[in-house]
Amino acid sequence: VFLKVSLVVTDAQMGSYPKIWILMWFSALLRVFLIGYGEWQDKHMDVHYTDIDYLVFSDAASLVAAGKSPFGRSTYRYSPLLAIILVPNTYLHPLWGKLIFSSA
């Protein structure tokens, strides 16, 4: 006996539940809001929202952007791929990594 599994959900199956795209937009806006709040907290409060590891990631990304090894930062003990993914932190905006991390 085989079970047929449908990955497509129709409006009739959803009933009164909100459409998935509404939930996705809401969650995306909530994440952007929390990133903004974290930036505000980092600038105005003694306890920072951003962990020190994010600064280590960003420094390693800057080294990679300069053509150097991410391990030039003595506390960087992560995959070089992480530093490569965060290179736009150097060129675009320092929040690039936070947007990437929050979308995962």
From TrEMBL:
Coiled coil: none annotated. Its main location: endoplasmic reticulum. The chain crosses the membrane at residues 20-38. GO terms for cellular component: endoplasmic reticulum membrane; glycosylphosphatidylinositol-mannosyltransferase I complex. One of its GO terms (molecular function) is GPI mannosyltransferase activity. One of its GO terms (biological process) is GPI anchor biosynthetic process. InterPro entries: PIG-M. Keywords: Endoplasmic reticulum, Glycosyltransferase, GPI-anchor biosynthesis, Membrane, Transferase, Transmembrane, Transmembrane helix. It is a multi-pass membrane protein. The keyword Transferase applies. Pathway: Glycolipid biosynthesis; glycosylphosphatidylinositol-anchor biosynthesis. It comes from the Eukaryota. It is found in: Endoplasmic reticulum membrane. The keyword NADP does not apply. Belongs to the PIGM family. This is GPI mannosyltransferase I. It comes from Nymphaea colorata (pocket water lily).
